[in-house]
Design brief:
Keywords: Signal, Transport
Main location: periplasm
Distance between the termini: 45 Å
InterPro entries: ABC_SsuA_sub-bd (IPR010067), Solute-binding_3/MltF_N (IPR001638), SsuA/THI5 (IPR015168)
Helix content: 40-55%
Family: Belongs to the bacterial solute-binding protein SsuA/TauA family.
Oligomer: single chain
Radius of gyration: 19 Å
Strand order of the largest sheet: 2-1-3-10-4
Protein name: ABC transporter substrate-binding protein
Order of helices and strands: HHEHEHEHEEEHEHEHEEHHHHHH
């Protein structure tokens, strides 16, 4: 397993510059920056939340300005949160706790429960691969993002014995790099998440070997900065409620959501249709039970040699947005 220090160093560097961002923003935005408290900056992954909110019409009549910023994966999204460049964004429990365990000033504030029953995170192989089961992944080269939900899936598959010894060689790659490496045979498999699972399966005819069902909590969270929780509490609460309504709309209008997702992200419509089906869930307030579930996630990283000094699990969560004031 590769050393986590380079990633954590990068995260700490991003956190160290966050105090400069207000000054930089003031220079770039001029007088309008004085109204920053009226703007909620939301980090998105591949445009999925933005597409859903707009498709559901929940972006109308906002009492604040909503600004979107797009990221390829959770890791850079969480780095932006750590630097206070954005206020909130969605991330899987694995990457969130991996970043929080590096002592970044962020907390999970609202729950997005398992989407697709855990199918939205999976290990895929090329169409011609001789790998057919999780056991066949033993000793193979598997690409994923360090600290990602795909990384968590591999750690849990190893811990539960689904992938027997010898353990696979994990190659840490960004999604675009991992897809290219799989397509060219540089890695044997790719542990990834939506929309990349559907992109690989639908577009490249990859095989879904094993997914996250029954091996990990499969929760995602709307994560917020400590600063936003202190200064934009009302905006966060309103936004999470709008996203809850948007997800409810998406459950009943998957075809319409898929169409706007394809249009906004450039995903082929068949891929967007598969993504829409797997990513629909029912966001809900955080509860102590949800927090207890995530002990499995934290333990998985610790058993893999990461996050030894992460602190108390409950400190990773903020229940104030979920609790009526």
């Amino acid at each position: 397993m590769q050393d986590v220090a380079p990633v954590l160093n990068e995260l700490f560097l991003m956190a160290s510059v966050r105090k400069l961002l207000p000054f930089m923003a003031a220079l770039l935005l001029g007088p309008s920056f004085v109204h920053a408290e009226e703007t909620l900056i939301v980090a998105d992954q591949k445009g999925q939340q933005k597409a859903l909110l707009e498709a559901a019409g929940q972006d109308k009549n906002l009492p604040y300005t909503l600004q979107w910023t797009e990221f390829e994966a959770a890791a850079p999204l969480l780095q932006a949160l750590a630097a206070n460049a954005v206020d909130t964004g969605i991330a899987g429990d694995g990457p969130f706790l991996f970043a929080w365990g590096a002592h970044l000033p962020i907390k999970a504030a609202f729950l997005v429960p398992p989407r697709g029953g855990g199918e939205s995170t999976a290990v895929v192989t090329s169409a011609t691969s001789p790998i057919h089961t999780a056991a066949d992944l033993s000793g193979k080269r598997i690409g994923t993002g360090k600290g990602s939900i795909g990384h968590l899936l591999l750690l849990r598959l190893i811990a539960t014995g689904a992938i027997p010894s010898p353990a696979p060689h994990i190659v840490f790659l960004a999604p675009a790099q991992a897809k290219a490496a799989l397509d060219t045979g540089q890695i044997d498999a790719w542990s990834t998440w939506e929309p990349y699972v559907s992109l690989a399966v639908v577009e490249s005819h990859a095989h879904n070997i094993v997914d996250g069902r029954n091996v990990m909590p499969n929760n995602s969270f709307f994560v917020a900065t400590n600063e936003a929780l202190a200064t934009k509490h009302a905006q966060l609460a309103d936004f999470y409620q709008r996203m809850t309504a948007a997800y409810a709309w998406g459950t009943e209008h998957q075809a319409e959501y898929a169409a706007i997702l394809a249009r906004q992200t450039g995903l082929p419509l068949p891929v967007a249709t598969a993504v829409a089906k797997r990513l629909i869930a029912a966001p809900a307030p955080l509860t102590p039970k949800v927090i207890q579930q995530e002990q499995t996630t934290l333990d998985a990283y610790r058993s893999g040699g990461f996050l030894k000094d992460a602190g108390k699990l409950e400190d990773a969560f903020d229940l104030t947005v979920s609790t009526p004031q």
